[in-house]
Amino acid sequence: MTDILTLPIDIHCSKLLDWLRSRRHIKSEWPQKLSQIRQLISSAIGDMPENDEIATLLSNASLLTTTEADTKNIFGRYSSQRMKDWQNIIAKYEEDNVYLAEIASLLVDLAQYQIPGFKKRISRLEATIQLEKQVDKNEDEIDFGDDLFETEAMQSADYGIEEIAVVDDKNLKDSNCKSHPNVEESVARGEEALTVLENVFTNALLLTELLELKSFFKMRHHELNTDHFASELLFANDSVRLLANGMSFVEKWLQATEQIIQKLQDPVLCHLTELRSKAEYLEYLSSEIYSHKERTEKCRQTVDALNNRQKDATKEIQQLLEEIQNLAAIARDLKSFIEQNISKRYNNRKVNIVGSTVTI
Questions:
Q1: Residue 7 DSSP one-character state
Q2: 354: closest CA among 181, 146, 107, 168?
Q3: Which of 38, 66, 187, 195 qualifies as a FRET site for 77, CA 20 to 30 Å off?
Q4: Rounded CA separation 327/114 (Å)
């Protein structure tokens, strides 16, 4: 029996109120009594915060013992109504251990809800900051299209401007050219005046032919890799020549075809082709560039907004950490007070309020 009495009493924080109620240290109707006590406090000192500390109330009462010292009667009791009100409030707090129930309720609320809630909020803010840092990193990698037309195709494009060669008059005299006045001369106009690459229709036709040629070389490359000679029956005339040149021949022409297709499909070259063939395409292209710049500006504004949110989140995290430290200090004081109070009721046995939430 002696060994049992020396064992510590472990109480889980979440079950603290139930433990006090089951041991009859507090009654189930303590919330109603606490509400009545708060009404008495309100009538005694005016508005008082609901969750004010008990120490404030006790300090006010001890202060009255000095200010109301002259109001004692012959029996040593205070005749001041103000002092009687405070003594009545303290008596009701101590009756049925209402003060112990309230302190236990405050500890459970701090350890189980408020502090964990702040920690979850910090975790969400930290995740937001990490996401916004990733956005900032991607911003450095984004091409906003400031050099939209500064490409190799733009530099190598032929705008139809040719150098005029200077010819010596002496050579003209010695030339064998003869005029033919009866031959009709015609000047190409409209689409007929455009080259194969400048004309949209012929450009598309050429690209189609090149794509078909690319497919042919790919198929032939596959046949040579798989040692499939059935194609020789279909290409009896060309198979010997192609096979003689071997794989390098096919790969060489396939690579050359792909390079030509890549140059023909260059966006800048396509725009230039459309500009040469369609006068109204300039207006369309201008509107696209303007729209692109608008989207770019919106993206930059979004990035700036995210940077501001990141700064606000960092500031809020700092404030929450300070608040957690303050609440943790209060929770430790409440925990120590409850452990000492319960220990006195069990012959000074050691009392531990356990649980991960109280490890603050």
A1: S
A2: 107
A3: 38
A4: 8
Is this model's pTM higher than 0.90 or not? no
Please work out, in degrees rounded to the nearest 5, the angle formed at the alpha carbon of residue 105 by the alpha carbons of 103 and 107.
70
Q: What is the pLDDT of residues 204-223, one digit of tens each?
A: 888 899 999 999 988 888 87
Residue 125 predicted with pLDDT over 60: yes
- Within 10 A of 358 (CB to CB), how many other CB atoms are there? 23
Q: Which residues of 168-194 are buried (b: 16+ CB within 10 A; e: fewer)?
A: eeeeeeeeeeeeeeeeeeeeeeeeeeb
Residue in the structure block whose two tokens are 């090149």 = 210
Q: Please tell me whether residue 163 adopts helix, strand or coil conformation.
A: coil
The secondary structure of the chain in percent helix, strand, coil, rounded to multiples of 5, reads 70, 5, 25
Phi, psi torsion values for 26, nearest 5 degrees: -135, 165
Burial of 86 (0-12, 13-18, 19+ CB in 10 A): buried
Percent of the chain at pLDDT above 70?
65
Largest CA distance in the chain: 151
Phi and psi, residue 12, nearest 5°: -75, 140
DSSP 8-class letter at 110: I
What pLDDT band is residue 344 in, cutting at 50, 70 and 90? Answer: very high
pLDDT tens per residue, range 284-329: 888 988 999 999 999 888 888 888 888 999 999 999 999 999 999 9
Amino acid residing at 30: W
> Residue type at 326?
N
Q: At 285, is the secondary structure helix, strand, or coil?
A: helix
